[in-house]
Structures are given as structure tokens and as C-alpha cells.
Amino acid sequence: MNGANISTTANTDWAALKPYRFMIFALFIAEITGSFESAMIIAVMKYLIEDFGDPALVGWLVTAYLIVGAAAAALVGRMGDIFGRRRVLLIVLAIGVAGSLISAFAPSFGWLLAGRIMQGMTGAILALCIGLVRENLPQQHVPMGIGLMISGASVGTAAGLILGGWIADNYSWHGVFIASVGFCAAAWGAVRLWVPRSPLGANTAGIDWFSGILFAPGIMLVLYYVGSIAKLGLFDNTGLVAFTAGMALLAYWLWRSLTAKVPLLDVRQFRNRNVLVANVVTALVALSSLQITLIFAILLQSPVWTGIGLGVSAFVSGLAKLPSNLLSTFAGPLSGWITGRGGGRMAMLLGGALAASGWVMVYFLHDSISTVVAILCVISFGTTILFAVGPTILAEAVTPDRTSEVSGMLAVVRGLFQGIGAMIVTSLLASQVVTDPASQAQYPTQAAFQLTIAVVIAFSILATLCAFALPRGRATASATSA
Fold first, then answer.
1. 390: closest CA among 356, 351, 422, 434?
2. Predicted confidence band at 3 (pLDDT cuts at 50, 70, 90)?
3. Which of 194, 446, 416, 435 has the alpha carbon at shortest distance from 308?
4. What is the dihedral of CA 454, 457, 459, 461, to 10 degrees?
5. H or E stretch covering 443
6. Crossing angle between the packed helical segments 45-52 and 55-83, to the nearest 10 degrees
7. b/e for 219-235, b at 16 or more Cβ within 10 A?
8. Residue 76: band (very low, low, confident or very high) from pLDDT cuts 50, 70, 90
9. Distance between CA atoms of 311 and 344, rounded to whole angstroms?
């Protein structure tokens, strides 16, 4: 197919989405809201630490959100499959409004954390949006619609970092939570107005509700342990108790899910080769490319005398990430278009090759801000393609009544392995350090940095090679077993 034909086909695909533009816009705003709430807290960490004085305590505003969001994604996604995704999405957005209001006017840190925990429910928004896309769009346009939802995540992250930072600099951290109220309320109104009512799912008789409920505290306890390792170490008693209890609950949930006639969360979906591949790729990308913010923040902000650092401020470091966030808004629809035309295998190979190439480049080239910004764009573009193709593969591999459930499980895998990846990256960077004589601050050496990047490259290549386990061409939407 030549360039003119590709352009004509792409334009035709965009024109076909026109009747659904208001619905897609509403879901796009909802996904921006979820990503904004995830990123905004990073922009105001400095001011929260100044007010509350304890960095470890303030860190729980990030950790608690991620833990609740990961645990909620699969369970809330399944609730959407059963009780109607539009209805459940409206409830989640309403909880987001309430949580943001509580945090905005919190009289103490306890209230601030409580509101932040409620905001964590918005971690289920993407899974619900993916289900609504499949529910309302013609099958041939579902991949591009899902790609647009993934792009909304990039826009929301950029808004959280830039807008959140501007509000905090000029007003206070309270203002960021007020902005979150506005985002949630606007998304609620748009979904209420423009997204059609969802049909109810299958008959709920016989569903093993107990096993599904056990999944949430089980995964939360495991994620608590993973998130506490950096502060408390691998062998902290509290962390080990949480990990043991969490694994016990998950083991029991796994047994119940495999033996129940109608499990609430059906682990048997992983018998489907495409479902398994999408989750393995997500885990490998979470271990590698999703560590991009952590790795590049250290690269950009470490002093020049360390041999790897560029010595810029935190603000400039954030601005350096902005072009890649904006460019990635085009990667989601492109991934959907490629998947719709040639299948998930082709899109996954392209995204994986781009991301891995970017990491190889940064291994050798990291001596100027302009070079780093360009490489960030390559890695982010490839990573977004990978993340857009995963939910599309899942949507085509399972029956419609399980779409949000498997998309939510994908979010759980991402959250768990992103936490493990952060632990690996932090340990590798700390394997060889140099100390600033004046401040006694420690920074990774060039050898430690390159070792870390080499491990990331290996995980990225593995993620790309997994694409060969997928069938050629598009999977059929009814392919529920392999």
C-alpha cells in the first residue's frame, strides 16, 4: 500500500468515527481525568512536604492511590460488565469528586489521605472506557477508539504535571484538588449527556461474589509490600506479614476462581493465548519503559560532575518530558489504526522496536538536553503504541461481557510490575554511587546508569519478541479460547 492509499484509508477511518465523536469526546475527558489525578500529586509533592514535614508520610498519597487504583481496576471493571459500564463510570467519577473535595479542604493529613484513597477509584476509568468503546462502536473502529483512550492518558499526565505545578506555584496544593473536582464534574456531565445507557450484563445468579471480593484486599496487601520496600527494606516485619497475608488471599482467590462455576473474576481467561501475551507484554513494559520518569529524572537532575547528569532543575526536567507526552497523543490512534488494519502483532512489533531503540540510544547518547528530549519522544511513542495495542488485543479475544474485567486485570498487572520495576531500577542505580562532599548526597555513577539501561533494554527486547506469539492478522472478536 503506498503513502497516498494509507492517507486516504486513515482519513476514511476518521470520517467513520464522526457519528460517535461526542461519545468518544466524553470518554476521552473521563480518561484525562483519571490520568490527571494520578500525575497531579507529583507536581505538588514539594509543597505537601513543606506543610506536613515528612517525605515518607507524604509519599503515601502516591502509594495509596496506586494501590487502590490497581485493586479497583479489575473489580470495578467487572461491576461495569455486570451492572452497566456507563452507570458504574458515573459512580466512579462521583466518588472522584467527593474524594477531591475532601482532600481540597482536609483539616489534617488523615483527611487528605482519605480523600486520596477515594480518588484511587478513578484508576478503574480506563477499563470502563475500553468496555464502552467496544460496546458502542462498530467492531472495525474499536481499535482506533481504544487508541484514543490511551492517548487521553498521555494528555492527562501532561496536564497533571504542568497544570498541577502551575496551580501549586501560584496558589497552593489545595488548588490542584479543586482542579480535580472540576475535571471529575466535567467528565461526569459529558458521560451523562453523550454516552448511551449500557445494557445490563448476564444474569448474576450463581456468581461467586466472595472470591471476587477477596481479590481486592489480596492485591492491595501485596502492592503495599512492594511499595514499602524502598523505605522499609525487603525484610521489614510489617511488610512481610502484609505480603504473606496477601499471597494467601490471592492463592485462595485463584483456587475459587478456577473451581467456581461462575467466578466473579475469571482467571481462566488467561488460558487464551492472546490474553496471556497481552499481560506478559504489559508486565515486561512496566518493568522497563514505564520506569522512564524515574530514570530520566535522575539523568536530568544529577550534577554534571557525576559523569551522567545534566544538572537541570526539577521544573526543567518536567518540561523536558512534555514534548514526549504531547507526541504520544498521536501514538494511541496510530496503534489502533495499525491494529485494525494489520493486527496486534504488527503494532506490537512496531511499538516494541521503537521503545527498545530509544533505550539503546540513551545508553550511548545522553550528553545534552536536546538529545535526551528527542530520545524521550522515541521511547514514549513506542511505549504508548504498546499500551494501546494490549487492550485492543484483549477486547478482540474475549466475549463482550468480560471486556472491562480483563482490561482491569491488565491494569493490576501494570501496577504490580511497575512497582517491582521501580525497586529493580532503584537498586541498580544504587549499586555504584558517588558522594557530593558538600551535601553528602549520593548519585549513581555512569557505570550504574548504563547497567540499569542495559537491564531495561533486555526487558524491552523481550516484550517485543513476545509479539511473535500472536497470530498474524486480526484476531476474531469471538475468539475466547486458544
1. 351
2. very low
3. 446
4. -140
5. strand 442-444
6. 120
7. bbbbbbbbbbbeeeeee
8. confident
9. 40
| Distances 336 to 115, 179, 321 between C-alpha atoms, Å | 35, 31, 24
Sole residue written with cell 475469571: 266
Q: Which amino acid is at 107?
A: P
Residue carrying the nine cell digits 445490563: 200
Contacts of 29 (CB under 8 A, 6+ apart): 152, 183, 186, 187, 190
Residue 137 DSSP code: S
Using DSSP, state whether 417 is helix, strand or coil.
helix
**Backbone angles phi and psi of 207, in degrees to 5:** -70, 135
Q: Is the pLDDT of residue 226 over 80?
A: no
In 113-183, beta strands by DSSP E:
none
Per-residue DSSP letter, 310: -
CA angle 46-50-52, nearest 5°?
A: 115
Q: Mean pLDDT of all residues in the chain?
A: 81
CB contact set of 295 (below 8 Å; sequence gap of 6+): 425, 429, 452, 453, 456
Sheet strands (E) in 58-143: none
Q: Are 221 and 249 in contact (CB under 8 A)?
A: yes
In 139-251, where do the E strands start and end? 207-208
Query: What is the pTM for the complete model shown?
Result: 0.74
Neighbours of 362 (CB within 10 A): 24
